[in-house]
């Protein structure tokens, strides 16, 4: 091959590669390039209350807080899972129950962790968080550790609470530590020699909640000390009877379009203005009802559906042709640099073609 032909081929290869970058091959973190440099605790995530407690929307046969299982939740963008763990039939078993095993037994912790591990295997640029919440009879710490080891989920767990600052999502993804685990059980934290259960107290500030229908969404307590993770319970509860037993603080599956709609956004924005740390987790029931995704995009300062420059023009200004599909967010640095590189490659090709008199 002549040197001139080789140069042309090389420049064409560079041009195609850079085009791929601009057209969406850029690296993403939790679905967005803009989130990659952000510390873990400078991102807002949607989490599901009693994530494993799945019921039917049309004919609920048992108590539940969600209409879809763990894998579908992850596929739909849920990045926080709240798992109520309790000792199972034997000391070596760990069950997921809500609010107790008589009302809802969601199976073993190991089975759910296996789903999470398998999902992380195929979604290696996403960070997921698990909150282990003790329920009924505290689980045997050794059994909990075994569930993590047997499921294989332990290979992804971030070890220990950072001494200074939380790592960025990009750093966590690069280190393959894409699973963060918090526990409210001091015994479980102490019994873990690997240190991958981060203590809930002193790390997580959980605001007031849940709420009853018609109650005001509040944002206390206001006594933050040194917590770096903020969780807001955003769901409505009621007292109900099931199998002859009365339960308080059970899910309220009504008016979900409102609860998970504008009230979700109102609650988040109100608390964001009153607290001194970033809102990290908005914990919801029936996440699939209403729209909790768009407000979360807004909280993360990311483009959202119908986020268009046209929204900022007076109605008498007709600029539809010029601005269709243009996001109100500025282009990322990577995209801008890539476009300049493509322009340079095009100019180089022009010079080569001219030299070869093509």
UniProtKB/TrEMBL annotation:
One Gene Ontology MF term: phosphoric diester hydrolase activity
Keyword presence, Lyase: no
Pfam families per record: PI-PLC_X
Keywords, comma-separated and alphabetical: Signal
Annotated signal peptide: 1-24
Source species, domain of life: Eukaryota
A single GO BP: lipid metabolic process
Name assigned to this protein: PLC-like phosphodiesterase
Source species taxonomy: Eukaryota, Fungi, Fungi incertae sedis, Zoopagomycota, Kickxellomycotina
């Amino acid at each position: 091959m002549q040197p001139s032909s080789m140069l042309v081929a090389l420049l064409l290869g560079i041009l195609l590669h850079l085009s791929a970058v601009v057209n969406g091959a850029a690296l993403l973190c939790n679905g967005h390039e803009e989130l990659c440099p952000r510390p873990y605790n400078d991102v807002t995530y949607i989490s599901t209350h009693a994530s494993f407690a799945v019921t039917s929307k049309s004919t609920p046969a048992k108590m539940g807080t969600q209409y879809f299982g763990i894998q579908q939740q992850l596929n739909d963008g849920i990045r926080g899972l709240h798992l109520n763990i309790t000792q199972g039939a034997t000391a070596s078993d760990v069950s997921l129950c809500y609010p107790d095993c008589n009302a809802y037994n969601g199976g073993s912790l190991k089975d759910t962790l296996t789903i999470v591990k398998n999902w992380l295997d195929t979604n290696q640029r996403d960070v997921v968080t698990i909150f282990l919440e003790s329920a009924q009879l505290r689980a045997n710490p050794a059994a909990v550790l075994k569930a993590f080891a047997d499921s294989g989920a332990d290979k992804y767990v971030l070890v220990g609470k950072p001494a200074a600052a939380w790592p960025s999502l990009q750093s966590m993804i690069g280190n393959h530590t894409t699973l963060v685990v918090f526990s409210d059980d001091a015994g479980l934290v102490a019994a873990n020699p690997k240190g991958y259960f981060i203590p809930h107290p002193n790390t997580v500030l959980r605001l007031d909640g849940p709420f009853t229908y018609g109650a005001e969404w509040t944002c206390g307590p206001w006594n933050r000390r040194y917590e770096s993770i903020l969780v807001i319970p955003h769901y409505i509860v009621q007292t109900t009877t099931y199998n002859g037993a009365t339960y308080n603080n059970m899910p309220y599956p009504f008016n979900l379009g409102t609860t998970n709609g504008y009230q979700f956004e109102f609650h988040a924005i109100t608390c964001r203005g009153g607290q001194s740390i970033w809102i990290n987790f908005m914990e919801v029931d029936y996440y699939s009802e209403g729209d909790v995704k768009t407000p979360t995009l807004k909280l993360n300062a990311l483009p959202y559906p119908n986020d268009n420059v046209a929204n900022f023009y007076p109605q008498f200004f007709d600029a539809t042709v010029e601005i269709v599909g243009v996001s109100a967010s500025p282009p990322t640095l990577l995209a801008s640099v890539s476009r300049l590189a493509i322009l340079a490659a095009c100019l180089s090709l022009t010079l080569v073609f001219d030299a070869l008199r093509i």
